[in-house]
Specification:
heterotrimer, A alpha+beta, B alpha+beta, C alpha+beta, B: alpha+beta, Glutaredoxin, nine-stranded mixed beta sheet, 5 helices, C: alpha+beta, four-stranded antiparallel beta sheet, 18 helices, 64% helix
Chain lengths: 134, 176, 631
């Protein structure tokens, strides 16, 4: 009996310490890999370093979209503040001026260099109580 | 020892589920609701029944714009509620979306007209500018600005949870 | 009216299932008479409920648009296949399908389990109770039987064109089959705990069902991944989207569960783990359903819903989970086995494995919940993306695989023979190091984790090849289910590592008749045509691609504009081959008439799904062999 109790105690101890260590490592990984979301006006209230990946969301400002070969620049606004965004590549189908957008990228000077551009309701999401014309 | 285990089990599961309970009850919860403030876009479109043209200047004050069509099934279900709103003197402007004139008119004849007037957006131009992706969708406007946009059927619950709070906050419609 | 009949039948079935539950709990569940009764009532309830569903399918096929849901999601012009699949394209109908599958697993269990099995009545009772819970949810908050009367429309609305895809039509049924199949293990586990007799070997009974469900779940996830790859235009196969994660967690739990089950069904070791895991798998499946249907998370899959539904599901699941865990804590003492786990035995490796999986599940759950918690408390939106999950999954999986490697030689309830290990260990390490070095020099792959992944994946596969050799040469025992599925795992790790490291993409700005060079391939924009189809206009861009060997092929990505509401979708063009996919999408046209085009080289990507298929096949083969040995 004693041997089994010893083993059980050892197992419990092992489980507790590994859980503690594991949880600590996991939470540390979490903290260093969070993407914070900002609206353009919030962006300048914080002091965001260049190497921190951020998400910025708002509306694409009318008339702000310019293209140069594969590069596209535009302005995201929340009608109180705005920020320039540059992106190289294809933007999603639902991206257009006056529509919602979220970009993921890094802040360089006063511009967001975007790695990803997501238009609002991008992934063809359709609420079921909406019909589309046949 | 087992009592401790039991306590841990009960408290963690309780905490886990209560978190979701409180989260759900927060009001920023409806995925179809959008409270981004934007300007009402310009437009020049025909009235459904006549040749009269409507422009942005014709829209005054506080009102709803309801996007609907005769081909839209859910709009039929929503219609009853719109009639109720109309009877409470909430002004609703209809935006008839990508619909044949005659189909729209006969739909209204069949089910009734809860709208102050109906704009015939045959090509969906205004709808596109408004960011409409289907029907029914409803916009709340105040002072030339869109202050709420709901994608989907508006019923008692949606009206209470999505529109009422902002109506109360902005003191619109003389608080109904 | 047929729909009223279908509605009525569902209500009757609900009542009968409830009766089933009552009989199993309040009467002596070991009395053969009761078992017979419960079993018969269950079968009858199931057939009544199935009839309700079949009527519904009939109504959908026959364009009965007086049914609101069918009018909202189907259309006269849809092919029959999509009329049927439109049933599960949104919340109410897919819930209907979910419950059908839930009760189907129950009836399969019912028919294949003899009435002398002590736990049978209560297991059916628990399955019935779960069905009743979901049926009440369906009938009270998400009724698919609602009608539009007195004036039904002549035609339905069109379903989202994106949903008219064969793969997308099959993905939910496979996934649901996987999720709900674990109700059998769950029901049996609860029945076992209620009975309180540790001598009953419940684990053995549920093994086939659990492995089968696991296979379906794996297949469902793989199909979803494949669909996302060719449909979404980003060329990715996994996005750590919260909705993907809530499907992954039950899968992780299920994998740990079937391993733990293989230990517990052979001896009375690891019974506590197995019991806990059976509760965990089913709870995570239900939790996934809740997250997706409550609207908490706004994503590709979420069915926009109201809080009422979310609250109902939450309470139902909460009660189910808490009751089972409380029961577990009450019966805990019974299960503490008097057998020690022998160190370095197979069981010890499985228990370590359970810990690794537990860590992965915990991390995933944390990743899904953290943004919600953070926003709730700090009112700041954050998101948790791939970097976090990769930081956890990569090291944990690799370390777990090293343990897997050593476990290959372990035996049940015995420590293993270290000496016998030396030769295969030596051989596999040498070979994999050689291969990895070759790959390193040939393709200049760098990156510690990539090289580690390749090495680990290879040592597993090579080790199993040695096992296979010994099987044929010396008739040494080989568990082929283990071999196939774990080689699948090794291949998965290798494919993901190679895909991550070697894939590339570029956006090109190109005019008609121009040629660009990318990765030694010549890409010539040959033609642009506008092709009208029945419900959309298509802009097709033809590209002639010439590879370094001189072979040519054409890729035609498209942009489609659906008449519906001007919805624009991009169709990707993919040229698949053994080693890579060449993947193209078109973007916008610029003012100078040139187009922006994206080209990707996705290396080794087909192997990712192939390795998932290997696992599915291994699972199904195991089920087959278990069925044969029972008969």
């Amino acid at each position: 009996m004693k041997a089994i109790r010893k083993q059980r105690l050892a197992t419990v101890f092992l489980i507790l310490t590994t859980s503690a260590l594991g949880s600590f490592l996991i939470i540390r990984a979490l903290d260093s890999n969070l993407d914070f979301f900002f609206t353009p006006s919030e962006l300048f209230l914080e002091n965001i370093p260049n190497n921190k990946r951020i998400k910025v969301g708002g509306m694409v400002l009318d008339g702000s979209v310019t293209r140069d070969k594969t590069n596209i620049s535009f302005v995201i606004t929340d009608y109180e503040g705005s920020i320039n965004v540059e992106f190289d590549g294809i933007v999603p189908d639902l991206f257009k001026e006056g529509s919602g957008v979220v970009v993921l990228g890094y802040l360089k000077d006063k511009t967001v260099i975007a790695e990803d551009v997501l238009a609002k309701h991008d992934e063809n999401y359709m609420p079921p109580s909406i019909d589309i014309k046949n | 020892m087992t009592i401790i285990i039991r306590f841990i089990i009960v408290s963690t599961t309780l905490a886990f589920f209560s978190f979701f309970y409180f989260y759900i009850n927060e009001d920023k919860y409806y995925p179809g609701a959008d409270f981004t403030i934007s300007e009402m876009p310009n437009f020049k479109l025909k009235d459904l029944y006549s040749e009269r043209l409507f422009k942005i200047e014709d829209l005054e004050g506080t009102f709803l714009i309801n996007v609907w069509a005769s081909w839209c099934i859910t709009c039929r279900v929503e219609h009853n509620f719109l009639t109720k709103l109309d009877s409470k003197n909430i002004p609703i402007i209809g935006l008839n979306y990508k619909d044949e004139e005659k189909d729209a008119i006969s739909w209204i004849n069949r089910f009734g007209d809860p709208y102050k007037f109906i704009i015939h957006d045959y090509k969906g131009e205004l709808a596109l500018d408004l960011g409409v992706t289907g029907a029914p969708e409803t916009f709340l406007l105040n002072d030339g600005k869109i202050i709420a946009h709901y994608r989907g059927e508006v019923n008692d619950m949606i009206w209470e949870d999505v529109f009422k709070p902002i109506i109360k906050k902005e003191n619109l419609f003389n608080v109904n | 009216m047929l729909i009223e009949i279908a509605h009525f039948l569902s209500i009757v079935a609900t009542g009968l299932f409830f009766l089933c539950f009552i009989f199993s709990i309040f009467f002596d569940s070991k009395d053969v008479y009761i078992i017979n009764l419960v079993s018969r009532i269950y079968s009858h309830s199931f057939f009544i409920f199935l009839s309700s569903f079949l009527i519904y399918v009939w109504l959908a096929i026959n364009d009965n648009f007086s049914v609101l849901y069918i009018a909202q999601h189907s259309n006269i012009n849809l092919p029959v296949f999509y009329k049927i699949s439109s049933i599960w394209s949104a919340h109410e109908g897919s819930m209907f399908l979910w419950i059908i599958f839930l009760t189907t697993w129950g009836v399969v269990y019912n028919f294949s389990t003899k009435n002398d099995q002590l736990l049978k009545a209560r297991t059916l009772g628990i399955i019935s109770l779960t069905s009743v819970g979901f049926l009440l949810f369906l009938l009270l908050t998400s009724n698919p039987f609602e009608t539009i009367l007195p004036l039904p429309p002549e035609n339905g609305a069109d379903i989202n064109p994106v949903l008219q895809d064969p793969l997308l039509a099959i993905h939910p049924p496979m996934l649901y089959l996987g999720y709900v199949g674990f109700v059998i293990a769950f029901g049996q586990a609860i029945a076992f705990m209620l009975e309180g007799d540790p001598k009953i070997k419940w684990e053995k009974q549920v093994r086939s069902w659990s492995v089968a469900s696991w296979s379906f779940l794996t297949l469902g996830i793989a199909l979803g991944s494949w669909w996302a790859y060719y449909e979404l235009g980003w060329g990715g196969y996994w996005f750590w989207d919260p909705v993907e994660n809530v499907a992954l967690m039950p899968w992780l739990a299920a994998t740990a569960f079937i391993h733990s089950l293989s230990a517990s069904s052979k001896s009375s070791i690891l019974r506590i783990w197995t019991l806990l895991l059976s509760i965990l798998v089913f709870s995570l499946s239900l939790f996934g359903a809740f997250i997706v249907r409550s609207g908490i998370i706004d994503s590709v899959h979420s069915f926009a819903n109201d809080p009422e539904r979310g609250l109902y599901l939450l309470s139902f699941i909460g009660i189910l989970v808490m009751t089972s865990l409380l029961l577990f804590s009450l019966r805990f003492n019974l299960l503490i086995s008097s057998k020690k786990i022998v160190s370095l035995s197979k069981e010890s490796f499985i228990s370590i494995n359970n810990i690794f999986f537990g860590a992965l599940i915990f991390s995933t759950m944390l990743g899904v919940l953290y943004p919600l918690i953070y926003e709730f408390i700090f009112d700041q939106k954050i998101s948790v993306g791939a970097p976090f999950y990769n930081a956890i999954f990569v090291p944990v999986t690799l370390i777990a695989c090293i343990f897997l490697y050593f476990s290959i030689d372990s035996k049940w309830q015995q420590s293993f023979n270290l000496k016998a290990l030396y030769q295969p260990l030596f051989l596999s390490i040498i070979f994999s190091v050689i291969i990895v070095s070759l790959i390193f020099f040939q393709f200049s792959i760098s990156g510690f984790w990539t090289l580690m992944s390749l090495t680990v994946g290879l040592i597993i596969i090579i080790r199993y090849l040695i096992v296979i050799y010994f099987y044929f040469a010396y008739k040494r025992f080989a568990n082929f289910f283990s071999i196939i599925s774990h080689c699948g795992l090794g291949l998965l790790i290798i494919s993901i590592a190679l895909n991550d490291n070697l894939s590339s993409e570029r956006a090109l700005n190109i005019k008609i008749n121009e040629t660009e060079i990318y990765k030694d391939h010549k890409i010539t924009f040959t033609n642009l045509r506008v092709v009208p189809e029945s419900n959309y206009d298509s802009v097709k861009a033809d590209f002639l691609v010439t590879n370094p060997n001189g072979d040519t092929f054409t890729l035609t990505p498209e942009k489609r504009k659906y008449f519906a509401r001007g919805q624009v979708t991009s169709e990707t063009a993919i040229h698949a081959s053994v080693l890579k996919d060449i993947y193209m999408t078109i973007g916008d046209q610029l003012d100078d008439g040139s187009w922006i085009v994206n080209i990707q080289f996705n290396i080794f990507i087909r192997w990712i799904w192939f390795s998932a298929i290997m696992m599915v096949v291994a699972g199904l083969l195991l089920v087959h062999s278990l069925a044969r040995s029972k008969a």
